[in-house]
Sequence to fold (408 residues):
Amino acid sequence: MNFTDADLLKFRNNPKRVNKKTKERSLDGHSEQDLSLSDADGNQYNLFIRQNERMENNFSCGLLVVLNNGEKVTLARYNGNDHPHFNPIEKTRFSNESHIHVATERYIAAGRKSEHYAETTDRYTTSKGALHCLVMDYHIAGIATESEQTELF
Amino acid sequence: MNTALSSLLCQQWCASADIQAFGEGARVSLPMYGRDGDAYSLYLEPEIGGWVISDKGASLMRLSYEHDLDALLGGQRGKVFGQVVAESGAEYLDGEIILRSTESDLAASLLEMNRTLTRIEDIGMWTRLRVTNTFYDDLNEQLKEIAGAEKVHQNWLIPSLANAGDYPVDAMIETGRAPLFVFGVPSSDKAKLVTIILQHLNATHIAFDSLVVYQDMGAIPSKDQRRLVNAANDMIDSIGSREDLARKIKHRLAA
Fold:
C-alpha cells in the first residue's frame, strides 16, 4: 500500500456518505461508535468516535479507508490534548495540545504508520468539536455535528 | 567513569520526561512513542506505601481505533494480552492497566509500564490473517522436523482424484505405506471444509491415512468437532502439542 499525497488528497476530497452506524456503547471504560461510509468511486471507509470515560481530554475521531483485501489505512485522526506527540522525520515534538494526525506519502514511504505525522490545532477541545472538524474536512454527509464555536453563544 | 557522559545522559533523560500536575500526583510521559508517534500518558496517584501507575484505559481505547476489541482480545491474542500484563506484574481492571510501585522503584516502574503498553499496542499488529498464517507456518515447520523435509509435500493435490483442486490437502507425508494427509484447522470454517474433503475422499477408492491438527480445538464449536472426528482418522488438539504430534506421525512412518 504505497499511497501518494495525490491519492490521499483524493480520499480526503471525495464526498462521502454514511451508510451504516453502530449504537454508541460503553466498553472497558470508553465509549465508542463506528460508522461505515462510501464514496462515488466505490471506496469504503470506517469512521470511529472514541471518548475515554475516565479522562475528558482523551478522545479520538478518525477515518480509515478499507482496501479490497480488508486492510485498513488510517487517513486522519483528530485527538485530544492528553498526550505528547513526536514527528520523527521533522523532529518536532509537542505536548498538551489537541492535534490532528494525517496520512502522508513521506511517512508511508518511510515504513511508518500512515498517520504518524501530526500537527497541533486550536479548532476544537472536545470530541464533539473534533468530530465536526473531521466531517467538514473530509466531506462527510449523513451525520449531524456541531462546531464548538457555536457552543460559545 | 566518564562523569561528563553521565551528566549528559542524566540531563537529557530528565529534560525529556514530560511531567504535568494531575490530582495529588502527576501525568508522566516518557520519550517512548507508539507506532503513531503518540507518547503514552502514565497517571500517578499516591497510595499507602507508594504509587499507582495507570493508563486510565487509554491503551485499549487506542487499540479499538482499528480493531474490534471483543474479537482482538479473544482466542490466541487474548492469551498473549493476559501474558503481557502478568509478566510485567501489572493488573487489568475494566479496561485499565495498573502497576503498583514503591517510591524507591518508581522510575523503573514507569519504564516497565511503558514497555508493557508498547507490547500491548503490538498485539494490534497480529491480525487474524497473520495469526492464521503463523499457525500454518508453524505446522509445516513441525511436520518437516518430524518426518524430514523430503517426505513432506505442502498443498498436495491428489493425482488420481478427479477435480483434485476442489479437495486440497495441506500436507502429504510419505510414510512408505498409505500417504498421510495432514490438515491444519484454525477455524470452524476450515473444520467444515476439511470434513467435506475427508467425507469425499472416504467415499473414493483412494488409500490414505488422515490427521487433523487444530490450532486450538477449544475454539472450534462442538458440532464442527463432532462431524470432523467421525471423518478423520486421528487428531491433535493444539499446535502446541508437539510431542503428541511427533509420536502420531512417527508411528505411521515405515520402519
